[in-house]
Amino acid sequence: MAESILWEADPHTIAKHRILQAYLEAWAPILLQSHMGRIVYIDGFAGSGEYTNGYEGSPIIALKTIVNHAFFPKFTGDITMLFIEIKPERAEHLEALIKTKFSNLPNKIHWEVKTGDFGTNLKTSLDGLHKEKKRLAPTFCFVDPFGWKDIDVDLLSEFMLENKAELFITFMVGFIDRFSGDERNHKSMSKIYGKEQIDEINKQKTQEQKEETTLKLFIKNIKDTINKKGKTDRIYDLSFAAISRNNRLIYYLVYLTSHLKGLKVMKEAMFAIGKDKGSFRFNDFLDDQDPGRQGTLMDYNDVNSWQNNAGEDLYKAFEGKKTTVNEVENYTWTDTRWIFRKGILQRLEKKNLIRYLSKRKKNALTYDDYGNLEFV
Asked: Long-range contacts: 22-26, Cβ < 8 Å, 24+?
């Protein structure tokens, strides 16, 4: 029986694409304004571009987000969008769909649907650049495989050595958990883990511990490989869990960047789509119980609970120390599960847990970015 070209989008897939869209909506103006040369978007497992239940695939979402962006008319450089799909029939469907939906694209948008393996295409591109002693333009790469066999730590690390390279990976932890106990699968897993690490995963006592160890070692291996290849910049990472209708973890969305601004943008997107503030997860089971409950990006109006929790974490980290608002803000983004809002500081000050040491208007709980703080 032939494999279907189109399939239904599950709620967690829709949530994944909303995170992607929210990130691209913020990523676009940052790059469109600051890079007047060329920017690149790569979708490594592009699919057919649409689903049977009416939802659009990631290539269509990406194109729409860029083309319809308010800053797009002001950008004078080139935007290259590469969609890689290994199944010829899906690639053909996607190409026809793009031609139908985007028949009059401006000349500054260059797009291509490539039929083939993601890893082979990426490696060929990187090798070609290195041979010509060129660097990749600022690039966001969405790696969205159906399993784990197409994940190659060494290749992804080589990509991250490029200037302003960012990775957004669907990491199918459920598949690895299912196969890690069978030695016949260890050869393909060797692109991600060493033998001792596979043993470490299998030694974990609970399902949750296995999943957490699988993710932790995956991110560690990418960062360690990047560092061995000579990159000294800090690599920031975020992860977002997708839970199935039977309440089991399907995959993590893993984001990697060396740029703080990119981290902030993606964290905002993940924080907004998650069911509980700071949880960084989406649950199809809950969506089935209450359709629409998780269906849209949440606003930040209900701040009491999560900002109080964020304040507690910051107080534990800085208790008894003098610092600046900027340092607290950066720490919140990079070393906690929270996003930063100055309302967190206001709550701490009202509880007499911090003192603001810089000048401010009388009776105003305002905070200059480089104002001095003391955690008492």
From this structure: 22/268, 22/269, 22/272, 22/273, 22/297, 23/168, 23/265, 23/266, 23/269, 24/61, 24/62, 24/65, 24/66, 24/140, 25/65, 25/69, 26/265, 26/268, 26/269
Burial class (CB in 10 A: 0-12, 13-18, 19+), 22: buried
How many helices (H) and strands (E) would you count in the chain? 14, 11
Phi, psi of 94 (to 5 degrees): -65, -45
- The pLDDT tens digits for 179-215 are 666 666 667 778 899 889 988 988 998 888 988 999 9
Portion of the chain with pLDDT greater than 90, in percent: 52
For the domain covering 304-375, report its CATH number.
1.10.10
Structure token pair of residue 159: 């990509």
Beta carbons of 210 and 204 less than 8 angstroms apart? yes
- Give which of 191, 135, 145 is closest to 165, Cα–Cα: 135
What is the rounded CA–CA span in Å between residue 228 and residue 222?
10
Report the share of the chain in percent with pLDDT over 70: 87
Dump pLDDT digits (tens) for 10-26: 888 998 999 999 999 88
Average pLDDT for residues 21-46, to the nearest whole number? 81
Distance from chain centroid for Cα 97 = 26
Residue 47 to residue 253: CA distance in whole angstroms: 17
* Tokens at 153, concatenated: 């730590």
Q: Would you kindly state where each structural domain of the chain is located, as residue ranges?
A: 11-289, 304-375
How far apart CA 113 and CA 43 sit, in angstroms, is 10
User: In the 8-state DSSP scheme, what is residue 188?
Assistant: H
The fold adopted by the segment(s) 11-289 is Rossmann fold (3.40.50)
